[in-house]
Amino acid sequence: MALAALVAGSGAKGAEGATHTSANIALHLANPPAKSTTSFICINESPITLNIPCSAYVVNGTTAASYSLYVVIAGADAADTSEALAAGTKGIALGVTYNGATSAGIDVSAWTSCADLEFPNEWPAAGGGNVLTWVDCQTHDVAPDGVHVVVGAFSLYAYSADRLSITANKKLGSPALQVADCSGAQWDVNPENAGQISFDPAVPGCNPCLVPCVPVAVEPATWGRIKGLYRH
After folding, report:
1. Along the 232 residues of the chain, how does pLDDT read in single tens digits?
2. Domain positions in the chain
3. Is residue 180 within 8 Å of 186, Cβ to Cβ?
4. Taking the CB of residue 60, how many other CB atoms lie within 10 A of it?
């Protein structure tokens, strides 16, 4: 099911296929990790509440440590009238990749959503995908980097050198890395605007609010149907 259909139904405006060049899906490592409650992760200790612009996000960590890893839609210019997300966002479709082996590389122990609804498919496991939506348009300006919206946070432990990258949601019938604007229209996110975090000094993480990020290759899903889409 398309992101726009989830957000706004059949009345969504048709922006599908138009690459949205300024919105980033940024990542921010927090150590010590936030308390494992929705209120602390999504409100009290979120980078928006702490007024941290995406250009200051931490994308490199050390091993043998626990973190909260925030996923944030960021960098849309609220003053740009041609910017699709200038007024905010109502949804996102994304995937994630990292070393999925137990007690090797990164182990993700939990995911906390900051959206009203989510439709996970093997998420937050490596290679999984998720579609998240909000009832009301979300917009928070964090100067100087524009509109920021916290999608949620992974709770993780870094056992050894590894990277975690945001990718297209490969569990959809048609892979998608997309955001929905306040009208419900969906916009493709440039893969170079998807963040990467690293626990490997030889291969640093990437903050798309600062520089383009070279996309990470992801193996296609072995099945395309999202039978878990309606699991909430």
Report:
1. 556 556 654 334 344 445 555 789 999 999 988 887 899 999 999 999 999 999 999 999 999 999 999 999 998 776 766 677 777 889 999 999 999 999 999 999 999 999 999 999 999 999 999 999 999 999 888 999 988 999 999 999 999 999 999 999 999 989 999 999 888 888 889 999 999 999 999 999 999 999 999 986 644 433 233 223 333 3
2. 3-198
3. yes
4. 16
- CATH T-level fold of 3-198: Immunoglobulin-like (2.60.40)
Instruction: Extract the runs of DSSP E, i.e. beta strands, from the chain.
Output: 19-20, 24-30, 65-76, 89-97, 106-113, 117-118, 129-138, 147-158, 163-167, 178-180, 186-189, 196-198
Count of CA atoms in the C-beta half-sphere (13 A) of 104: 5
Angle subtended at Cα 107 by Cα 162 and Cα 27, rounded to the nearest 5 degrees: 65
Cα-based torsion angle of the residue sequence 6, 7, 11, 12 in order, rounded to the nearest 10 degrees: -110
pTM of the model: 0.87
The encoded tokens of residue 175 equal 């892979």
